[in-house]
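FAQ: What does a ligand-bound record look like?

Like this one, built around adenosine monophosphate:
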Amino acid sequence: MSVFTKIITGEIPSYKIAEDDNFIAFLDINPNAKGHTLVVPKKEVNKLFDLTLEEYQELMTFSYRVAKALEKAVPCLRIGMSVIGLEVPHVHVHLIPLNAMADIQFAQKVKLTNDEFVALAESIANKFE
Ligand code: AMP
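The answer part, i.e. the structure of the complex:
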């Protein structure tokens, strides 16, 4: 069972932003930049292109809605998107508020307190439509 399935089942906590029957979005625990969010299909599939075309399109639609909320809640030049999956073998879309090229590179990290994570997740969730 992946760490993201454990988040989906509630076994481990997350800073949740949005959820429906098939997808969940929560803050990345080791963010590249403030607001770095992961969008995850509840069905545990390893690789992005192992999803059916329909599942892939639904994941992109949900990610679009989360990105719109992020853009409203977090000051940035734009939202960057990346799919990697080398660390956690459960499909996830990285949505990252960008102010510089370095923000999309997975070398630079920001530190947030629990209170900052909670406030950030709430401010993005409030913009989710
Ligand atoms: P990758 O599989 O290379 O796309 O990276 C996995 C991402 O998941 C990394 O950015 C981690 O910081 C993030 N991550 C791992 N465990 C958790 C967790 N429990 N809650 C939130 N994000 C996580």
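Follow-up question: can I read anything off the structure? Yes, for example: The pocket of adenosine monophosphate is lined by residues 3, 14, 28-30, 38, 84-88 (CB under 6 Å).
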